[in-house]
Design goal:
This protein is an alpha/beta fold. It has 5 helices and 9 strands. Helix content is 28%, strand content 20%. The longest helix has 16 residues. The N terminus is likely disordered.
Length: 176
């Protein structure tokens, strides 16, 4: 039910359908315990622009009403389907048979040689620590974005943009 509001504690947040109606090539971006509101806002904006839903797996590292989320997402936040989940298990229960693809610097498979499928959920870990081993093991696939060996990692929103762009390109799901 797009646009339905749910009241949880003192906060209100949106619950949305799992995929954009009629878009069988849709993908989702999932952020595991994100810590930086500007990154979440940028990923929400990315989702709005490319037609991907966004899953936020709590706890978040900031208050949801943080102005920095809205500042980065701008008015695009009104054009993206997003869901907040109480934790990883709650999130995992909602994706059904969708393939969960973890992006991690610890993977050996290159994202540009990996074969994405329509309906994949692209999972990214928290900025400071990635995901715990149990979450990594619960994923169906693990891939990495190639980076130079002398650097540690990429910005979360930048990595999500590169990953989603490649995944949608492969399945013919990029917007016109």
């Amino acid at each position: 039910m797009i646009g339905k509001l749910w009241r949880g504690g003192d906060e209100r947040f949106r619950l949305h359908l799992r995929a954009t109606p009629g878009n069988r090539k849709a993908m989702r971006i999932a952020l595991f315990e994100p810590e930086i509101p500007g990154n979440v806002g940028a990923v929400l904006r990315l989702g709005a622009n490319l037609g991907a839903g966004v899953d936020l797996i709590e706890p978040l590292g900031f208050a949801w009403n943080d102005k920095r989320v809205r500042r980065a997402a701008m008015d695009y936040i009104d054009h993206v389907q997003f869901t907040r989940h109480a934790g990883f298990e709650a999130f995992r229960e909602t994706i059904g048979a969708a393939r969960l693809v973890l992006f991690t610097t610890k993977a050996t498979a290159n994202a540009y040689q990996f074969e994405f499928r329509p309906g994949d959920v692209l999972l990214f870990g928290k900025e400071s620590a990635g995901v715990p081993a149990g979450v990594a093991q619960a994923c169906d696939e693990r891939v990495r974005l190639p980076i130079r060996p002398e650097v540690r990692s990429m910005n979360l929103a930048t990595a999500a943009a590169l990953a989603l762009g490649e995944a949608l390109r492969q399945v013919g799901g990029l917007p016109g």
